[in-house]
Amino acid sequence: MPFIEVKTSVHLTNESSNELKSGLGEIITLIPGKTEAVTMIGLVGNYDLYYGGVDVDKGAYVEVKMYKTATTEAKAAVNKGICDLLKKTLSIDADYVYIAFFEQPEWGFKGTLI
User: Please, are residues 60 and 90 in contact by the beta-carbon 8 Å criterion?
Assistant: First the structure.
């Protein structure tokens, strides 16, 4: 039950949003036991980002939240996959991408706490 949120300074078109959604759905499967079928994705374009006090023309902040834990190797693979996807889809250099992973011991899903 992962949730991936991408906030980017780049304007998102329907095409780029669909590419990101599909790509993130594939990337999450790099974590054993995680599937696109139960992954929620949020995309925010035209987000004001600053790095070192300077406006970032092309950058992104990504949060990957998930129930339970994943190995460092799996998170590293997801990290690389997301950076590659952002480069391919939005021409964002990895130097301007921050990715935060949040592992939750409890998760609410379908009205139930698991």
Answer: yes
